[in-house]
Amino acid sequence: MRSTARHSIVRLLSQHAFLIIVCLAALYPLWFIASTALRSNAAYQLNPTGFPSHPTLTSLRNMLFHEPLPRWMWNSFLVTVSSVAVSTFFALLAAYAAVFGRFRGHSFFISTSVALMVVPPVTLLVPMFVFMVNTGMVNHLQSVIVFYTGLLVPFAIFFMTGFFRTIPQELIEAASSEGAGPFTVFRRIVLPLSGAASFTLIVVQAIWVWNELLIALVFLQNESARTLMAGLTQFQGRYVTNEPLVLAGALLSILPVVVLYLSGQRFFVRGLTAGIGK
Amino acid sequence: MATSARRPHRRRRALWPYLYALPALGAMAFAFGFPLVQVVRDSFYAGNFSSPIWVGLDNYRGVLSDPAFRQSIFNNMKLLLAVPIMLALGLAIALVLNDRIRGGRHYQSVVFLPYVLPATAIGIAFSFLLQENGVLNRSLRKAHLGGLAYDWLGNSHLAIVSVGGLVIWQQLGFAVVVFTAALLALPPETAEAARIDGAGWWQLQLRVLVPQIRPIIELLTVIQVITVISWVFNYVYVLTAGGPGFSSSVMELYIWRSFSSGADGTAASVAVMLLGMASVLIGLSLWVRRQAVAT
């Protein structure tokens, strides 16, 4: 009996030790980014690790006032908000039609969305770029906004159909048998029930757009139209010998994501793992 | 079917679902349908797109005989090795968390955090950590382990290993959360019965719990294989840019490089090949998903 008790204490301790090591490994790069952003370049070159003994806001201030970073952040914000808003709206309508309208081929429509979810965007890049050049959208934010919107739609449909299936069909039928039109049912019954699900979907899509690099890199090549992620890679090449400055930019790009994550963790977890659940 | 039989007047009003699905359908046709068709066409042409020249299969022949392309595809295969490591580690963490450990939720939210962060920003930080004279090597030298201080990004054999490490670092949390959820959904009776039968901790984990979540493990394997074959551009681009030379290039980066140097037909032909591989995997994922849902 006693040996089992000691055995289980050893196990408990080693389990915690294991988890703590994993957590430290997960957090170290973040600590590195934050602490380096607060070092002067001279201090970093001398000693890049340890606690910043003379923290300075120079790099962060430079990023915010002397570099195009705020502009790029604003671009990323605009791109994220518009593409996510449009794709969510489209997907809500389509998923509503697919689940409650049951048009011909609705199940094919849904499984096509599931398949498209995993098509690598890089394979679509060349024709899309040519299209953007031909329509004069290249180097304008519209180019990435329309493309992102389309890329987001399949996952959004998959996610919303999954959620709508949990709404009892009788609820919808009761309303429509009382003479409510499809849009009234959508607005009065379905939308109010979808608050949390829509929010989860919005968070996931926003993260995806905010973090996207490849398309932004190719479609937006002039300084003023870059998104934040594409801009960061510019800094990486431009300030090879000033790591604190580059990481100040990285820190500012991560901050909104971390704040969102801390305030609504369950939405992230539920949304990002939705592709795999159920 | 049943609905329309019960209420025949539905037939008349059945136009609206098509209208509602139309915007989404249009968006997908634009973002996927059009470029997927076009990229296949493009792969048979050379020159730039204002004056394309039909070259048949020459782009494919050129690509397949290009050592840089072979190196790229080989690197994707090397990255496959990251999948079992990531899944095994993720499973181990999930099993420990599943032991109703104190603070389990907090551990989980820390472990999941890397997954939501922008790969670009993180990749840049890793490039500073792993540089020849970066933080890792300086620490190793300080600890008198200078023999282990390799040039993680500049060595043509190690660069892709570093990329794999970064992929594992970022994707691990995803595996943990998925496995934890799967374990949590298991009926507690089976584990209880095994415990009463005197199963030890390891036996319980490996013989009772893991086999029960096998469908999820399979599904996640397929998804992560798709990731390392076709979604690693960000990591490679910021960490090594495919270098030195093409030694850590992957198919996506090869497409991007060909495209940036004006070889659009070449880029298109690699895109088609990548798409072929992805389709096989996508088909597999749909099949595995159906199995996973069925159980």
Q: What is the alpha-carbon Rg of chain A in Å?
A: 24 Å
Shape of chain B: globular
The proportion of strand residues of chain B reads under 5%
Amount of helix of chain A? over 70%
Distance between the termini of chain B: 27 Å
Number of strands of chain A: 0
- Overall pLDDT score of chain B: 89
Low-confidence stretches of chain B: 1-10
Adjacency order of strands in the biggest sheet of chain B? 1-2
Largest sheet of chain B: 2 strands, antiparallel
- SS content category of chain B: mainly alpha
Task: Please give the structural blueprint.
The complex is a heterodimer of chains A (about 280) and B (about 300).
Chain A: H1 2-37, H2 41-46, H3 58-65, H4 69-101, H5 106-116, H6 125-134, H7 141-164, H8 169-177, H9 182-193, H10 195-211, H11 214-219, H12 228-238, H13 243-263, H14 265-272
Chain B: H1 2-6, H2 10-13, H3 16-42, E1 45-46, E2 53-54, H4 58-64, H5 67-79, H6 82-97, H7 104-116, H8 119-130, H9 135-142, H10 159-184, H11 188-196, H12 201-212, H13 214-230, H14 233-239, H15 251-260, H16 264-294
Antiparallel strand pairs in B: 1-2
Helix pairs in contact in B: 3-16, 4-16, 5-15, 6-10, 6-13, 7-10, 8-14, 10-13, 13-16, 15-16
